Sodium:proton antiporter (Microbacterium paludicola), 87 residues
Amino acid sequence: MKALLIGVILVAFAVAAALTIVRIVVGPSILDRAVASDVLLTEVLCVLGAEMVINQHARSIPIMLIIAAVGVFGSISVARFVARRDR
């Protein structure tokens, strides 16, 4: 049962990541790419969270916090860049 659950989770996250990477590559605007990269970071966080639940540990929490901080700072940077460019 555990192996089936892991397989389903891996397939779901792999499909979501592939679609997100397509959006990052295709674009068409920088804002689309920024949102897609935020979604990809969120997917990484979800994979780490699922791994922690399946293996019943909490060792990945510091890594998750760093990834979340990178996502927030990246979004702020892109928003500031677009706001300056639009002026």
